[in-house]
Amino acid sequence: MTTHDVATAEAAHHATAISEFADMLRIFGPLVANGRTLTAKNLDFALTTIERDKLARADTPATSPSWPAELTPDLAEILGRPNFTFIKLSQLYRAAGVQLPSTSEGEQAFFLHRMLTHWFEHASGWADAMQKEIEDKVAAVRAMANAGGDA
After folding, report:
1. Which long-range contacts (CB under 8 A, 24 or more apart) does 60-69 make?
2. What residue ranges do the domains of the chain occupy?
Protein backbone atom coordinates (compact mmCIF):
# COMPACT_ATOMS: atom_id res chain seq x y z
CA MET A 1 0.00 0.00 0.00
CA THR A 2 1.45 3.36 -1.02
CA THR A 3 1.51 6.52 1.05
CA HIS A 4 -1.15 7.93 -1.28
CA ASP A 5 -3.39 4.88 -0.66
CA VAL A 6 -2.98 5.27 3.11
CA ALA A 7 -3.77 8.99 2.93
CA THR A 8 -6.82 8.30 0.77
CA ALA A 9 -8.08 5.62 3.17
CA GLU A 10 -7.53 7.91 6.16
CA ALA A 11 -9.34 10.77 4.42
CA ALA A 12 -12.28 8.47 3.65
CA HIS A 13 -12.35 7.30 7.28
CA HIS A 14 -12.30 10.90 8.54
CA ALA A 15 -15.04 11.91 6.11
CA THR A 16 -17.20 9.04 7.37
CA ALA A 17 -16.56 9.99 11.00
CA ILE A 18 -17.44 13.63 10.30
CA SER A 19 -20.60 12.57 8.48
CA GLU A 20 -21.64 10.35 11.38
CA PHE A 21 -20.91 13.16 13.86
CA ALA A 22 -23.01 15.54 11.75
CA ASP A 23 -25.83 12.98 11.79
CA MET A 24 -25.58 12.76 15.59
CA LEU A 25 -25.68 16.57 15.89
CA ARG A 26 -28.69 16.72 13.59
CA ILE A 27 -30.58 14.30 15.83
CA PHE A 28 -29.31 15.28 19.29
CA GLY A 29 -28.77 19.01 18.74
CA PRO A 30 -32.45 19.99 19.04
CA LEU A 31 -32.90 17.75 22.08
CA VAL A 32 -29.98 19.30 23.97
CA ALA A 33 -30.84 22.84 22.83
CA ASN A 34 -34.34 22.41 24.30
CA GLY A 35 -32.91 21.23 27.62
CA ARG A 36 -33.99 17.62 27.20
CA THR A 37 -31.99 14.83 28.76
CA LEU A 38 -30.48 12.25 26.48
CA THR A 39 -31.88 8.84 27.38
CA ALA A 40 -31.35 5.36 26.07
CA LYS A 41 -34.66 5.69 24.22
CA ASN A 42 -33.51 8.94 22.53
CA LEU A 43 -30.19 7.36 21.63
CA ASP A 44 -31.85 4.25 20.20
CA PHE A 45 -34.23 6.40 18.13
CA ALA A 46 -31.36 8.55 16.86
CA LEU A 47 -29.18 5.61 15.88
CA THR A 48 -32.09 3.88 14.16
CA THR A 49 -32.82 7.09 12.25
CA ILE A 50 -29.18 7.49 11.24
CA GLU A 51 -28.95 3.88 10.02
CA ARG A 52 -32.21 4.22 8.09
CA ASP A 53 -30.90 7.42 6.47
CA LYS A 54 -27.63 5.70 5.53
CA LEU A 55 -29.50 2.82 3.92
CA ALA A 56 -31.69 5.26 2.00
CA ARG A 57 -28.57 7.05 0.69
CA ALA A 58 -26.72 3.86 -0.23
CA ASP A 59 -26.23 3.40 -3.94
CA THR A 60 -27.33 0.07 -5.38
CA PRO A 61 -25.60 -0.97 -8.59
CA ALA A 62 -28.00 -0.69 -11.52
CA THR A 63 -27.07 -4.19 -12.67
CA SER A 64 -27.92 -5.82 -9.35
CA PRO A 65 -31.22 -7.69 -9.65
CA SER A 66 -33.90 -7.20 -7.04
CA TRP A 67 -35.67 -10.17 -5.49
CA PRO A 68 -38.40 -11.15 -7.96
CA ALA A 69 -42.02 -11.71 -6.96
CA GLU A 70 -42.11 -14.87 -9.08
CA LEU A 71 -39.61 -17.74 -9.10
CA THR A 72 -37.29 -17.35 -12.07
CA PRO A 73 -35.55 -20.25 -13.87
CA ASP A 74 -32.16 -19.12 -12.50
CA LEU A 75 -33.43 -18.99 -8.93
CA ALA A 76 -35.24 -22.32 -9.33
CA GLU A 77 -31.94 -23.83 -10.48
CA ILE A 78 -30.10 -22.40 -7.47
CA LEU A 79 -32.68 -22.97 -4.75
CA GLY A 80 -33.79 -26.38 -6.02
CA ARG A 81 -30.47 -28.09 -5.29
CA PRO A 82 -30.67 -30.75 -2.58
CA ASN A 83 -27.95 -30.79 0.08
CA PHE A 84 -26.27 -34.01 -1.13
CA THR A 85 -25.33 -32.36 -4.45
CA PHE A 86 -22.67 -30.32 -2.66
CA ILE A 87 -20.54 -33.22 -1.37
CA LYS A 88 -17.78 -32.98 -4.00
CA LEU A 89 -17.77 -29.16 -3.95
CA SER A 90 -17.44 -29.23 -0.16
CA GLN A 91 -14.44 -31.54 -0.43
CA LEU A 92 -12.86 -29.23 -3.03
CA TYR A 93 -13.41 -26.07 -1.00
CA ARG A 94 -12.05 -27.69 2.17
CA ALA A 95 -8.98 -28.86 0.25
CA ALA A 96 -8.54 -25.24 -0.88
CA GLY A 97 -8.56 -24.13 2.76
CA VAL A 98 -12.12 -22.82 3.05
CA GLN A 99 -13.78 -23.40 6.44
CA LEU A 100 -17.20 -24.94 5.81
CA PRO A 101 -19.95 -26.04 8.18
CA SER A 102 -19.70 -29.71 9.11
CA THR A 103 -23.29 -30.73 8.29
CA SER A 104 -24.71 -31.35 4.84
CA GLU A 105 -27.37 -28.71 5.54
CA GLY A 106 -24.65 -26.24 6.48
CA GLU A 107 -22.73 -27.05 3.30
CA GLN A 108 -25.92 -26.55 1.31
CA ALA A 109 -26.50 -23.17 2.96
CA PHE A 110 -22.90 -22.15 2.22
CA PHE A 111 -23.15 -22.98 -1.49
CA LEU A 112 -26.65 -21.57 -1.91
CA HIS A 113 -25.30 -18.35 -0.41
CA ARG A 114 -22.34 -18.36 -2.83
CA MET A 115 -24.64 -18.94 -5.82
CA LEU A 116 -27.14 -16.30 -4.72
CA THR A 117 -24.29 -13.86 -4.17
CA HIS A 118 -23.18 -14.45 -7.76
CA TRP A 119 -26.79 -14.11 -8.91
CA PHE A 120 -27.09 -10.71 -7.21
CA GLU A 121 -23.72 -9.58 -8.59
CA HIS A 122 -23.97 -10.99 -12.12
CA ALA A 123 -27.69 -11.63 -12.72
CA SER A 124 -28.04 -14.25 -15.47
CA GLY A 125 -24.24 -14.62 -15.55
CA TRP A 126 -24.23 -16.15 -12.06
CA ALA A 127 -23.44 -19.68 -13.31
CA ASP A 128 -20.35 -18.49 -15.20
CA ALA A 129 -19.16 -16.59 -12.12
CA MET A 130 -19.73 -19.65 -9.93
CA GLN A 131 -17.87 -21.83 -12.42
CA LYS A 132 -14.95 -19.38 -12.35
CA GLU A 133 -14.93 -19.52 -8.53
CA ILE A 134 -14.85 -23.33 -8.65
CA GLU A 135 -12.06 -23.30 -11.24
CA ASP A 136 -10.07 -20.96 -8.99
CA LYS A 137 -10.45 -23.46 -6.11
CA VAL A 138 -9.29 -26.30 -8.35
CA ALA A 139 -6.25 -24.25 -9.39
CA ALA A 140 -5.47 -23.46 -5.75
CA VAL A 141 -5.61 -27.13 -4.76
CA ARG A 142 -3.41 -28.10 -7.73
CA ALA A 143 -0.90 -25.39 -6.83
CA MET A 144 -0.74 -26.66 -3.23
CA ALA A 145 -0.31 -30.23 -4.46
CA ASN A 146 2.47 -29.21 -6.86
CA ALA A 147 4.18 -27.27 -4.08
CA GLY A 148 3.89 -30.30 -1.80
CA GLY A 149 1.80 -28.35 0.71
CA ASP A 150 -1.38 -29.00 2.59
CA ALA A 151 -4.50 -26.91 2.74
Report:
1. 63/123, 64/120, 64/121, 64/123, 65/119, 65/120, 65/123
2. 3-57, 73-147
